[in-house]
Amino acid sequence: EVAGARARGAQSAHLLALIDLTWRVKDAYHEYVRLFRVRRVLDDEQQVLDRMEKVAQVKYASGTVGQQDVLRAQLELSQVEDELTQNRRDIETVAARLVELLNLDPRATLPPPEEQAVKRSPHDLASTDPDSLFDRYARHRPEIRAAAAATERAEASRSLAKRQYFPDLTLGVQYVNVGARDVDVPDNGKDIWQVLAGINLPIWFGSKGARVEEAEADQARARNELTWAELRVRGEIRDALERVRSAEERVELYEGVILPQANQAYQSAEAGYRSGTVGFLDYLDSERMLLAARKRYHGVVADLGKQHAYLDRVLGVDVRYSAGDEG
């Protein structure tokens, strides 16, 4: 029983390694997706700045604006090119991490991620009770499994230590093949049968009592560690749920308010610059705000995916695919 509980603890450590590996792969993949989305934004931005430069060139040729408008547009284009260079390097770094985590050939080239919708919660997290998630999924946590196995091992060790007080009984039968000899003795060459019996009384109670006390202390420690593991997991579930809720609120804020406002401000500034009512600096600032908002949006989308991955890690199971069965 002691060895079996120890084996179950080792199995839990193996499951924990698998869950942690899955979490790291998901986290790296969401960053990989974010960088590709940012690259598409920067590619679009190059086209926008190129159009802005052409508008400035036309207005400069007509004498309505100075050359500084053209130079500012060219400077912004150079800065976007620098960001694209940095972006390509970041993609290579994250791709190398994914290749390592997936145990692929170091020379392998990962394909660009497929375009996909923003990942939403698999269920209404706003009304989800952390305690109900704990009761449903906590048994998937390897740490709790390991702590429970340690408790079982300590209980079996305590029971084993108490058996040291029982006397040891020995019973046996022995057969001896006796060969005949050239001597005149009774029963010469007759085989021998022996019956053995013995009892070993445990009179050294001091050492045995110390073993029992040690086993009881180990049992109390294992129970405390199990309780602590459950409390820690409950706290992690609450924290993970709050992270997901916060990330979803940020995504909704960007999709419903910030991005539409930034886009509207840019379109208004572009129309004003073409008509001569808005200066180039204001036009450029509106473009910068739109660019920054789009990049931050993909950042919060990636963060939402990462927080979902963290919630899966905390629960020890992917809540999108599990119906409560062990996974």
Amino- and carboxy-terminal Cα gap: 25 Å
Oligomer: single chain
Structural class by helix and strand composition: mainly alpha
The ordered string of helix (H) and strand (E) elements is HHHHEEHH
Total helical segments: 6
The gyration radius over C-alpha positions equals 37 Å
Strand proportion: 5-15%
Overall pLDDT: 83
Question: Any idea what the shape is?
Answer: elongated
What topology, given as strand order, has the largest sheet? 1-2
Instruction: Give a short account of the largest sheet.
Output: 2 strands, antiparallel
Low-pLDDT ranges: 319-327
Describe what you observe in this structure.
The protein has helices at residues 2-61, 67-101, 130-137, 142-162, 205-275, 280-315, and strands at 168-176, 192-200. The protein has 327 residues and is mainly alpha-helical. Helix 1 packs antiparallel against helix 4 (142-162) and helix 3 packs across helix 5 (205-275). The longest helix is centred in the C-terminal third of the chain and has 71 residues, at 205-275. The model is unreliable at 319-327 (pLDDT under 50).
